[in-house]
Design brief:
The complex is a heterodimer of chains A (120) and B (552).
Chain A lengths: L2 H20 L3 H16 L12 H10 L15 H10 L14 H14 L4
Helix pairs in contact in A: 2-5, 4-5
Chain B lengths: L9 H15 L4 E2 L2 H4 L20 E3 L4 H14 L3 E4 L18 E4 L6 E5 L4 E4 L5 H10 L4 E2 L10 H6 L8 H4 L5 E7 L5 E3 L33 E8 L1 E2 L3 E9 L5 H13 L7 E3 L9 H8 L3 H10 L5 E9 L1 H18 L4 E9 L4 H5 L11 H4 L29 E4 L3 H18 L20 E4 L11 H20 L9 H10 L2 H17 L27
Parallel strand pairs in B: 2-4, 3-4
Antiparallel strand pairs in B: 1-2, 5-6, 6-10, 7-11, 8-9, 8-10, 12-14, 12-15, 13-14, 16-17
Classes of the chains: A mainly alpha (120), B alpha+beta (552).
């Protein structure tokens, strides 16, 4: 088998992978949410007697129950909205860099939240 | 908000950007306003001002070789670089550089955990790895080692260690730079150097013997600007089988002296982990008469009021790692020692828990006594739970602490020194009319490092002046506090870029010979002054005129 033939399947596989990643994935989004967002915006308890993690607590204080405090319960967060908060920060949440969360990963997270919010 | 590196023309900068793109790929060079927002300090005291420490661009290399290529481009065009790991050094400048217009070298993509050895107890990681990443890696594989995490845990073990960060488990491991073992560094020339046994090709103990042979330059890379660290080894604590805690209180103010002596003895024998000091008299902090006595350092009156309220003056919470039997033996010994030194002391058994603790045991706060000890960090479990301190609160729902900053002075590890520091810091705060959380006898020492105390002074973690004018005034006051501290022999251990010249000024022995020594090395190995000029107060000749420029 020539080198050219040997590399062709690899090239096709890479193209397929790139194409797949162009479509937001809730599964990938869940993993990324749990890694990057949940330590602050998850549903667990906080420190020093705080019943909620800081991001969830802050949104509970802000919305006073009119909107769910936990992001996984929100059905209104589009990729553009999430990206605006991620890149600019909000209050005590600092902005996150493209090396931490790419735009494609933000789209994955939006896809995950669209699914997770239906499980409330 | 287009900003150019100092002394670099627009044409040369554009050419450099193309070469950076060739080095790391077009997708990982950032120049747009949107992309550069996260490279600014979210807590900057000079946000939006003409002198805000913003970068001109950011590049995200994925390998040591790419870092080398970036450094070579910077040398070619004389562009100052500023390297960040995870960029989470908040309260100390976050990702922002010391020089406006620097190009930030964002190492987050270098996020490989290269090795964790649970038999020889070490990890070898890249700078983009976070404490949370490393913890999860260890847990997923069931490895029996602990990390020692700062609070919060989104930072990088390398970045944290290089800024002399700390943690909360056992003595040796809490000093994150002290617990490192070997590093790989891209030098200002673009060459790669390894320290310790890494300098010996084929050595199997890079993460076990940090000294190698001859002078170990590793210390130059902590709070320095002599290279970009691309790999670093860390000693890890073996996972203990059991964890136990206990509370000791002593009745009188002067009992702090034997209390600290006793705890020093225990911790330096490695019989106890990080001790958490406090004062039960905080319960009286809102009592006007008590506060007057505490502010006047009227010890007799404070003791009288403490006795009347049936409160002790000081407390320390101890933690023990080992087996059920050894932790019990160490706790029993601690009780025996303190009762020998202070017969009126009280000792309260805490909890006795097999490791690993359950999620509920880590989160719960309902032990046999009120505790200040954060379970997650004492167990080496990184998280962001502590971030509530800078966010909204029920009391202030529409604001946040924009002036989150951490200034802490080093204080000798004795009761006498702590009580003198309380008076000094109160006096400084009162004379300079600056806010201080405890300008009185209630401030307590923190034993983050094993062998010394640090104490908040001046502002602690919050200034609260969220207006531009308030922030400007606060910066000036911070500088005055730092200068006044130095006159009394107190140096700070860490600072944001905005104040690094001021802290470096504190360390002035023999006409600043330490700084002159560092800058002689800097000029020799970084003749173009491209690596993080100004970091740690070390300015290369090419940018030395910028020393103190932020003061104006």
């Amino acid at each position: 088998m020539s080198v050219r033939h040997a590399t062709l399947p690899l090239v096709l596989a890479c193209l397929a992978a790139a194409s797949a990643h162009a479509q937001p994935s809730a599964e990938r989004g869940k993993a990324k949410f749990e890694h990057t967002c949940a330590p602050c915006h998850g549903k667990g308890g906080g420190n020093d007697g705080h019943a909620q993690l800081p991001g969830t607590e802050a949104l509970a204080i802000k919305y006073k129950g009119t909107i769910p405090a936990a992001l996984e319960d929100r059905s209104d967060l589009t990729a553009d909205t999430i990206r605006a908060f991620v890149r600019n920060g909000s209050f005590s949440m600092p902005p996150f860099r493209p090396t931490e969360l790419t735009n494609a990963e933000i789209a994955d997270i939006a896809a995950y939240l669209a699914v997770s919010s239906k499980r409330r | 908000m287009a900003v150019l590196p100092p002394g670099v023309s627009a044409e040369n900068f554009a050419a450099a950007i193309k070469e950076f793109q060739a080095a790391v790929g077009n997708d990982w060079v950032f120049t747009s306003d949107e992309d550069l927002v996260p490279y600014r300090d979210h807590f900057s005291y000079i946000k939006g001002e003409a002198n805000e420490l913003v970068p001109s661009a950011a590049v995200g290399p994925d390998s040591t070789e790419q870092v080398q290529a970036v450094v070579r481009v910077a040398n070619k065009y004389r562009i100052p670089l500023y390297a960040i790991s995870t960029g989470k050094n908040f309260a100390y400048g976050g990702p922002s550089p010391n020089v406006r217009g620097s190009v930030t070298v964002d190492l987050k993509r270098m996020n490989r955990i290269l090795e964790v050895d649970a038999r020889r107890h070490f990890a070898l990681v890249e700078p983009g790895v976070s404490y949370i990443d490393l913890y999860r890696y260890i847990q997923e594989r069931g490895l029996k080692v602990w990390i020692d995490t700062p609070d919060p845990g989104w930072g990088s073990p390398i970045g944290n260690a290089l800024d002399h960060g700390i943690g909360y488990t056992q003595g040796f491991y809490r000093d994150h730079f002290g617990a490192h073992c070997g590093m790989e560094v891209v030098l200002p020339s673009g060459e790669v150097m390894r320290t310790g046994m890494g300098a010996l090709p084929g050595s199997k103990c890079w993460s076990e013997y940090r000294h190698g042979y001859g002078p170990d330059p590793a210390g130059l890379f902590g709070q320095g600007n002599f290279g970009i660290v691309t790999k670093m080894g860390f000693r890890l604590m073996p996972q203990p089988e059991h964890w136990r805690n206990g509370l000791i209180t002593v009745p009188k103010r002067q009992d702090l002296i034997p209390l600290i002596d006793t705890v020093n003895y225990l911790t330096d024998l490695s019989m106890a982990g990080e001790p958490w000091y406090g004062s039960p008299l905080m319960a009286l902090a809102r009592d006007k008469d008590f506060l007057a006595a505490a502010s006047a350092f009227n010890e007799a009156e404070m003791d009288r009021m403490a006795a009347a309220a049936k409160l002790h003056s000081w407390q320390v919470e101890l933690q023990f790692h080992g087996s059920e039997k050894t932790t019990l033996a160490n706790w029993e010994y601690a009780k025996e020692l303190i009762l020998r030194a202070v017969p009126g002391a009280r000792c309260v058994d805490g909890e006795s828990l097999p490791v690993p603790l359950t999620r509920e045991q880590i989160e719960h706060t309902t032990g046999p006594y009120p505790t200040n000890m954060r379970r997650n960090v004492t167990q080496g479990v990184p998280g962001l739970g502590v971030w509530y301190m800078v966010g909204r609160s029920e009391q202030a729902p529409n604001t946040w602490n924009e002036t989150h900053i951490g200034l802490f002075s080093l204080v000798a590890r004795s009761g006498e020194a702590v009580m003198q520091a309380q008076k000094d810091f109160a006096d400084i705060a009162n004379r300079l009319k600056v806010p201080n959380l405890f300008p009185n006898a209630l401030s307590t020492p923190v034993n983050w490092y094993q062998f010394t105390f640090i104490m908040g002074n001046g502002f602690g973690m919050s200034m609260g002046a969220n207006t531009p004018e308030g922030k400007k005034r606060a910066v000036q006051q911070l500088r005055e506090v730092l200068a006044e501290n130095a006159k009394r022999g107190y140096g700070d251990y860490r600072a944001p870029p905005m104040l690094q010249d001021d802290v470096a000024d504190q360390y002035s022995f023999n006409n600043h010979v330490l700084r002159r020594f560092n800058e002689a090395i800097k000029d020799a190995i970084d003749p173009n002054g491209i690596l993080s000029p100004g970091r740690g107060g070390i300015w290369p000749a090419a940018h030395r005129s910028l020393r103190g420029a932020l003061r104006s």
